[in-house]
Amino acid sequence: MIFHICFILFAYVNVLADDENDYIQEVDITNQYIMGAVKDFVIHERMNGLEFTVKRIVRGNKYSFEKMNFMLAVPDQLLFQTLDKCISSEKSLQKEIITALRHDRPSATGVDDIFVLGDERRKLVRRAIKNLFFYDMFLKYDVNYSLTQKCHLIGLATSTKNPLSYTENAVVDNDGVCVMNSIFGTVTKYKEFENQFWEVEPDQVDEKKERLLCQLE
């Protein structure tokens, strides 16, 4: 009886390990899609393929903030998601890139460290979001973002900066301020001043702390 229990537990652990390895491979493949998107240029939007894809995702209002976060910023935070949800997020991001840019499926590189892959993605996505804020919003290339969409972009950007205390939700309050809560309950607020977003004091939202674009360096 003990032998059978041990055998079942061993088999279960092996299945979990195989599932996690499959997920890491999908993250690797998605990163290859992302790198290919960075090298692409979307002429009519005057931006690279990754910037265009991130813009489509956020502007499309198809995904919850939580799902966008795992797609774009924290694919390595497995403790807070089931593997099925994580794999679904990877497949969704791959599909978005394929739909936007018509790229073929790349091969995995064989990197098996999920945190290395997560850092790799965050660096590229953070640069894309920073460019969207600079060109689309500060220079007014596109004035059609809703305040909620801008807030979601800020939440995604801050998650790329602080993945271990990533943004859990990002909502606009009644005063038009973007309010974000981290997974540890820390509240951060951002407000727009003359086409630029600033982090503000939580209790004094007209008091600027630091410009968002500077935080994304």
Record the SSE blueprint.
Layout: H1 2-39, E1 41-42, E2 47-48, H2 49-59, H3 65-72, H4 83-101, H5 114-138, H6 147-161, E3 167-172, E4 178-182, E5 187-193, E6 196-201, E7 204-211, H7 212-215
Antiparallel strand pairs: 1-2, 3-4, 4-5, 5-6, 6-7
Helix pairs in contact: 1-2, 1-4, 1-5, 2-4, 2-5, 3-4, 3-6, 5-6
Number of domains: 1
Strand content: 15-25%
Overall mean pLDDT score?
91
Radius of gyration, rounded?
19 Å
Number of helices: 7
Contiguous low-pLDDT stretches (5 residues minimum) are 1-17
Which structural class fits the helix and strand makeup?
A: alpha+beta
> Oligomeric state of the chains?
single chain
Q: Main β-sheet: number of strands, strand sense, barrel status?
A: 5 strands, antiparallel
Widest sheet, order of strands: 3-4-5-6-7
Tally of DSSP β-strands = 7
Order of helices and strands: HEEHHHHHEEEEEH
Description:
The protein is an alpha+beta fold and 217 residues long. The protein has one domain (2-215). It has seven helices and seven strands, in the order αββαααααβββββα. The protein is globular.
Brief overview:
The chain is of the alpha+beta class and 217 residues long. The chain has helices at residues 2-39, 49-59, 65-72, 83-101, 114-138, 147-161, 212-215; strands at residues 41-42, 47-48, 167-172, 178-182, 187-193, 196-201, 204-211. The strands form 2 sheets. It has a 5-stranded antiparallel beta sheet with strand order 3-4-5-6-7. Strands 1-2 form a two-stranded antiparallel sheet.
